[in-house]
Write a structure and sequence with these properties.
alpha/beta, six-stranded mixed β-sheet, globular
Amino acid sequence: MRTLILIIALGVSCFLFSAETKKIADSYFDHLQKGEFKQCYEMSSPEVQEALTADQLQEAWESLPKQVGKYIGIIEYKKEEVEGYHIHTYALEFEKLVMDMLITIDNNNKVAGLFFTISKTPKPGSDTTLPDYLNADNANERDVTFDCEGMTINAKLTTPKGYENYPLLIMLSGSGPNDMDETVILRKPFRDLALGLANLGIATLRWNKRTHDYPEKMAGYIRITPRNEYMDELEAAMKWMKESSMYNTKYILGHSMGAFMLPQIAFENEDFKGFIMLAGNARPLEDLVSEQYEYIFSLDKMTPEQENELAEIKKQCREIKEINEY
């Protein structure tokens, strides 16, 4: 009986703590909407305060409507606990799409993280049907998982129906926290490619990047390099295929940053019979980074902070070119 009472007490305690962190997350979001960024700053942990000032938070929050339209409301909410942190996820509907806002509360009841990412939650009334030229009945799809440095990679294997032998194409998405479909609003190009190729007798393997499924863990890295963003996950996928006795002829497709990585992948891996590059950059990466930031900052009147940031980026790009000269 004492054990039962203790279990009930612990359960009530966890529930109350979770409810308390929900109130804190709701309060933080309320301050954001009211433009009370100083209060948000005061609710944050010392680490977040050091990384994100009230002015920077204001700039980030006010830039959202410029990119995704007017804020409409919350359409979904969920919470989870990961390694002692309470993560509250709000699916926020904007005019153009739905964004997930993740507010993390630590054991000191401080906001230890704020992340925004494109949501898997469909926008109400949106059309998510397949294009007319795709026939999903010609494909078998199953969810698979494999481990990468202690993180579970969520993947999808798509195989063609009616074929005993078929080649397998691995699909690498572009930079940033992409899901396995490379979802952008209602567009899912990797899903469409996978189903379309299955119609032609070709299997595909694609997965959610760790930066998509584990943004906080990945943010814990000192720096995210191309190797731990791409190579580590690819090596984990290759290991899973060998353990699953998948001896199919293997090809690999990369889009954007994924295409940029293919020469290094080809140099390090002899298992692939061919490589497909989609929208890979034909110029040095440092040139693209400088131009992209200049373009993004020029969409609105550039702030003094953005001017300083752009100047620092251009300085770093010049230093990279000087290194390459030796």
